[in-house]
Write a structure and sequence with these properties.
The complex is a heterodimer of chains A (about 290) and B (about 375).
Chain A (H helix, E strand, L loop, with lengths): L1 H12 L1 H18 L1 H7 L11 H6 L10 E2 L3 E2 L2 H36 L1 H16 L2 H12 L4 H27 L3 H8 L4 H37 L10 H10 L9 H28 L10
Antiparallel strand pairs in A: 1-2
Helix pairs in contact in A: 2-5, 2-12, 3-5, 5-6, 5-8, 5-10, 5-11, 6-8, 8-10, 9-10, 10-11, 10-12, 11-12
Chain B lengths: L1 H18 L8 H9 L1 H30 L4 H7 L9 H10 L6 H15 L13 H36 L4 H13 L4 H15 L19 H38 L2 H8 L4 H9 L1 H13 L1 H15 L4 H11 L2 H29 L8
The chains are: A mainly alpha (about 290), B mainly alpha (about 375).
């Protein structure tokens, strides 16, 4: 509880992080409500049409302010929310799994030291070297239709090392601090020291790593969509962008179907980026004067 | 205050890691020799680590592909337009050609033998019997041409702008640049590329849509061809430059701000040197090193982003090849692509590590 309180205090002191969290919460809530919003709108006439294509082919008044996917099909606000929800699901699932695995391995490796540390850190370096994307894409191609959960797990398999590396080096510096020595002399176990002494000190750092992992995961799935290998039967933001591109929206001068989902991704990344930046500034005193001073 | 502690422990960890490499063959004489020849012993250790990591990464890739169920030959035959039932003899011939004989371990030994001795990664499926490595070698030239050039431009621009923004932190130009960088540096390359495409190719009609050169052109060293090449590279290259420039910009700016607080900077200004001279001779050289290592560390990430960009622009590089190989489930080519990326990234890191003492006299490899 104390840690959550501290996290709130941190947010209050960092306007950037709180702005990021605010945007993120609004997006998550809207995305979670994609079902009810779709029904409420009756999946129809959201606004007056101002797409060039609409003026030519479809009688006035039946347009959509989000433009058209291909010929005749409209891009709806609710379908963007649905796609956002799916993207968020992949991002959070992969982000949480890879961060948890990375944190456990990073902590254990640095705390134990010795040969366990060298085996684990060599493995970590190995996973950092192997390019995740070609392997992920190959897996998706062979699997011939992966669900969101499967993709999230595969992403985490390749993503945990990104979190493990910096956490290990932070723990290496933390574990020689006096309060850890004190805990050790009072005969606290390794697990107890890790969870009561070290983890609380690393929380902002872990949150930072997680928001980065979420971005990487969302980006990787967008990459899969480019190759037509995204989650089967589920639309995410990447497949909306690709749908707009391949449906010829740009050729028809209709920018919304491509640019609106893209702007949604950008907004999402901006909020995650603000959180990362805000936390980093609080965490690293040298950077506190970084922007605009 | 916390920063130096973290850095030194990170360094300590790296030394520990290098020392764990199973190179020390025992003998006290050998150990003594190594301690006397610091640089050479570091070189050897680093080389062994490089080769070991490469072997481990190649093996991991190999078993990853073998763990995926399904036989590419069977898939290929099943997807032929004509329904055929292939004879046993035919199947076993191709199984042999693609190194699919025996169990996974036998396949692994055959693959590694072939790779180390013949520098071959098996035939490709999309252009059988062209070796997959040849396909990758052809396409990687395009990728290196596009990616290398734009990464270099982005790196130089990022350093110059970043140094300026760190140096003149209060000027409105720096602020605008910083906020642009914060918004841009996290974006996928191809988002920026699509925006550029829409503006310059669709709306203004100034630049071509896709591919690397104009239709009906031959690969040759002539002025029109080179012009067409540059013209086609402007949008994808521009997107790469824009995004990675701002990424470099942010790290360079941070570096610069840290360096500005150092005592030698105050001393240089106190000597009455002109600000421009202080920036160029005292500030910037101390920022180069992290920028160079950053460039190399980001290489793999940039490579992946570039793959997606090439697929969208039908640029004939590795990304496009990856797309074709994925469609045909050509896993020799897929493995070749992955292994070549691993090789390039590891070699770049290795070379930079070797070159660091030349770039920074404070670093010496005799521990």
């Amino acid at each position: 509880m104390r840690q959550i309180g501290a996290l709130f205090a941190l947010l209050r002191r960092s306007p950037k992080a709180s702005l990021g969290v605010g945007i993120l919460i609004v997006m998550v809530v809207l995305a979670a409500l994609h079902g009810p919003i779709g029904t409420l709108m009756g999946l129809g006439g959201i606004g007056a049409g101002h797409s060039r294509f609409a003026r030519h082919a479809i009688p006035s008044g039946s347009g959509s302010w989000l433009g058209f996917i291909g010929i005749g099909a409209r891009l709806e606000f609710a379908s963007i929310l649905n796609a956002l929800w799916n993207s968020l699901r992949i991002g959070f699932e992969a982000g949480v799994i890879s961060t948890v695995v990375g944190v456990v391995i990073g902590f254990y490796s640095a705390y134990r030291g010795g040969y366990i540390d060298s085996i684990l850190s060599t493995t970590t370096d190995l996973f950092l070297v192997i390019p995740a994307f070609p392997l992920l894409a190959s897996f998706a191609a062979y699997k011939n239709g992966s669900t969101i959960n499967v993709i999230a797990v595969v992403l985490a398999v390749f993503g945990w090392a990104v979190a493990a590396r910096p956490i290990r080096s932070h723990v290496l510096s933390l574990r020689t601090r006096t309060y850890v020595d004190l805990a050790r002399t009072t005969k606290e176990g390794a697990a107890e020291i890790i969870f009561t002494e070290l983890v609380p000190n690393m929380l902002p750092y872990i949150a930072m790593g997680m928001s980065q992992a979420i971005m990487v995961a969302i980006l990787a799935v967008i990459g899969l969509d480019v190759f037509g290998l995204g989650p089967v039967g589920q639309t995410d933001l990447g497949s909306l962008v690709l749908g707009g591109l391949l449906g010829g929206s740009l050729t028809l001068g209709d920018w919304q179907p491509v640019f609106v989902p893209m702007a949604t991704v950008v907004l999402l990344f901006l909020s995650l980026g603000l959180i990362t930046l805000g936390l980093e500034e609080r965490f690293n005193p040298r950077l506190q004067t970084m922007v605009g001073r | 205050m916390t920063r130096p502690a973290i850095e030194s422990s990170e360094e300590a960890a790296d030394v520990g890691l290098i020392e764990e490499v199973p190179l020390t063959v025992g003998g006290g004489g050998l150990r003594a020799w190594f301690s006397q020849h610091g640089t050479i012993s570091y070189l050897i250790r680093r080389l062994v680590l490089y080769l070991f990591t490469m072997w481990a990464a190649f093996s991991a890739t190999f078993f990853f592909f073998r763990l995926i169920p399904g036989n590419p030959i069977a898939h290929y035959i099943a997807n032929l337009p004509v329904t055929t039932t292939a004879g046993k003899k035919l199947l076993s011939h191709y199984d042999h050609a693609f190194d699919l004989d025996g169990n996974a371990f036998q396949q692994y030994v055959a693959y590694m033998y072939q790779l180390v001795v013949k520098h071959d990664m098996g035939p490709s499926l999309i252009a059988y019997p062209t070796p997959s490595l040849v396909l990758v070698a052809h396409s990687i030239l395009w990728t290196i041409g596009l990616l290398g050039t734009s990464a270099l431009i982005a790196w130089i621009l990022g350093i110059i702008l970043g140094a300026f923004a760190g140096w003149r932190r209060n000027s409105p130009v720096s602020r605008v640049l910083t906020y642009c960088a914060l918004a841009t540096s996290n974006l996928p390359f191809f988002f920026v590329a699509i925006v550029l495409l829409f503006i310059f190719a669709f709306d203004l009609n100034w630049l071509p849509l896709t591919y690397a050169y104009g239709p009906g052109m031959q690969l040759e060293l002539s002025l029109p061809f080179i012009l067409s090449l540059l013209n086609h590279a402007l949008i994808p290259g521009g997107a790469l430059v824009l995004v990675s420039m701002f990424t470099n910009f942010l790290t360079m700016r941070q570096q610069m701000i840290t360096v500005l607080g150092e005592d030698y900077m105050t001393f240089a200004s106190a000597k009455g040197l002109r600000p421009w001279h202080v920036l160029r001779r005292y500030g910037m050289p101390n920022c180069y090193l992290p920028q160079i290592t950053g460039l190399v560390i980001n290489l793999g990430f940039v490579f992946s982003g570039n793959i997606i960009l090439e697929q969208i622009f039908i640029y004939p590089g590795v990304g496009h090849l990856l797309g074709e190989a994925l469609r045909a489930q050509d896993y020799n080519t897929l493995m070749a692509i992955t292994d070549v990326i691993i090789f390039m990234v590891l070699s770049a890191v290795f070379l930079i590590d070797m070159a660091l003492p030349l770039l920074d006299p404070r670093i010496r490899h005799n521990r």
